[in-house]
Amino acid sequence: MQIELTYNNEPMNLNLPDRWTVDCFRQKTDDSALGYDHFVESLEKSGNSEIFNTDSLLIVVNDAHRSTPTAQVLEWLTKWKPSLVGSADFLIACGTHKLPDESEKRKIFGALFDSVSSRITSHDCHKKEEMKLIGQDSNGHDCFVNKKLFEYKHIFLINSIEPHYFAGYTGGRKSIVPGLADFETIERNHNLANSLECMPLRLQGNPMAEHLESIVANFNQDNIFTLQIVYDNKKRIKNFFFGSLKDAFQAGVTHADEMYAVSIAGKYDAAILEILPPLDANIYQAQKALENNQIAVADNGVAIILSACADGIGSEFFFKLAESWDAELNRPKDGKLHFGSHKLARVNQIGKRITAGLCSLQPDEIVSKVFYKPIKNIQNCLEEKAKEKNNYRVAVVYDAAHTVLTI
C-alpha cells in the first residue's frame, strides 16, 4: 500500500506491505469558512452587544504565539461599531512569553494597529506591582492576575479553542491563566503537567485543567464577556461562541471535539505522525503530535513523528535542562521542578511504554538527548518491528499536530 506524506514541505512516499492493516486518519473539516455576517448575527444574538457602547472597555487578546484570528475579529468589530477604535483599551495576554515587539503587535492587530497603538498594553508576568491578589488556588498558594481586569466596567476576551496536549484545550480560562497571571502561579500550574493525566481533550480528571479552574473561580466574572473561536488546521473559522467565560468555552469545546477528535476502535502497533509547516520547525514543537496520538499505540509499539525540525531544538533551555536530567527518576538531578521540565518528563515517561521515534534532519545525538529515538528510515524501522507480528497494524495520522486519536 502506497502512502503519501509531507516531510520538509515536500512529498514523501512510503510503500507499506499489503499484508499489513493500514488505516489513515485526518481532521474532520471542509472548505467552508464563516464570515462577517455570521459574526455579527452571533454577536447580536448573544444579548451582550451593549458592552461595546461603554467608554470603559478593555479588550484582552492573545499574543503572536497563538493563531487566533484577532486581527480579523477586530476588523469585523470596528466595521460593526466604528466608534470602538477610539474608545477601547487593549491588553495582550502574554503569559511567560517575551513581550511582543512592534512587528508582532502589527500581526496581532492588523490594519487597526496604527489607530490603537497608544492604548495597547502587554502583560508582564514578572511585574507583581501590576497585579492583584485574587485568592488562593486549590493547593493554598496565592494567585495574582493583571489588575487591569478590575479597572474597567466591561472586559471582552478574544480567544480560540483547539486541543492542548496538557491543558486539554486552549482558550477560555487560559486568557487569564497563564495569559494574565504572575510567573509563580503559571509555574505551579505548568509543573502539574508532569502527570500524563494531563492530556489533550481531557478537562475532567486533568490536574492542570482543574487547577486552572480553581484559580479563575476566585474572582467575580460578571463583567467578562468573551468570544471563543473554533478554526480548522487551515485557519478557516468554523464557529463563534459568545457568552460568559465558562459557557462560551464549554460550547466551543463541544464543537472542537467534533472536529479535532477522531475515534478509533482499538490500538495500533505503530503510528506514523505527520507534522505540517510551520509546526515542523523544531523538536520542541514536534511533541504535540506525539501527545495527541500516543494513546493510540499499544504497549511496546512505536510512534514515529515525521518532522524535519530544520530549525533545530527550538528551546535552548529545554536542551540544557536535558543535560542535567535523571532519566531513571525522570526529574532534574537537583530534584527541583523547573519551569518547562514537563516537556522532558512527558517524553521520557511515554518512551518507557512505547518507542517515541523522531524522523528529522537533526543529528542522532541531539534527538536522543531529549528522549526521542532517531529514525532515519521509517520503512526499515516498521519492517523490523513487524517481524514478530502476524497482523501488523499501522495508523497514519495526517497533520498529527491538529488531529487527536481517541479510543
Number of DSSP E strands: 22
Give the overall pLDDT as a whole number. 95
CATH class category of the largest domain: Alpha Beta
**How many DSSP helices?**
13
Going by CATH, the architecture of the largest domain would be: 3-Layer(aba) Sandwich
Proportion in β-strands? 25-35%
* Uncertain stretches of 5 or more adjacent residues: none
Shape: globular
CATH topology of the largest domain: Rossmann fold
The CATH homologous superfamily of the largest domain: LarA, N-terminal domain
Binned, the helix content reads: 25-40%
Largest sheet: 6 strands, parallel
Rounded radius of gyration (Å) = 22 Å
Strand order of the largest sheet: 3-21-15-16-19-20
Number of domains: 2
List keywords for this structure.
single chain, 407 residues, alpha/beta, 2-enoyl-CoA Hydratase, Chain A, domain 1, Rossmann fold, 6-stranded parallel β-sheet, 13 helices, 22 strands, globular
Overview of this protein structure:
With about 400 residues, the protein is an alpha/beta fold. The protein folds into two domains: about 1-30 and about 265-405, 2-enoyl-CoA Hydratase, Chain A, domain 1; about 35-260, LarA, N-terminal domain (Rossmann fold, 3-Layer(aba) Sandwich), CATH 3.40.50.11440. About 30% of the residues lie in helices and about 25% in strands. The chain is built from 13 helices and 22 strands. It has helices at about 35-45, 70-80, 85, 100-110, 115, 185-190, 205-215, 245-260, 285-295, 315-325, 340-350, 365-370, 380-385; strands at about 1-5, 10-15, 20-25, 55-60, 90-95, 120, 130-135, 140-145, 155-160, 165, 170, 225-230, 235-245, 260-265, 270-275, 295-305, 325, 330, 355-360, 375, 395, 405. The strands form seven sheets. It has a six-stranded parallel β-sheet, with helices on both faces. A six-stranded mixed β-sheet has the order 6-5-4-9-12-13, sandwiched between helices. A two-stranded antiparallel ribbon has the order 1-2. The longest helix is centred in the middle third of the chain and has 16 residues, at about 245-260. The model has no long low-confidence stretch (mean pLDDT about 95).
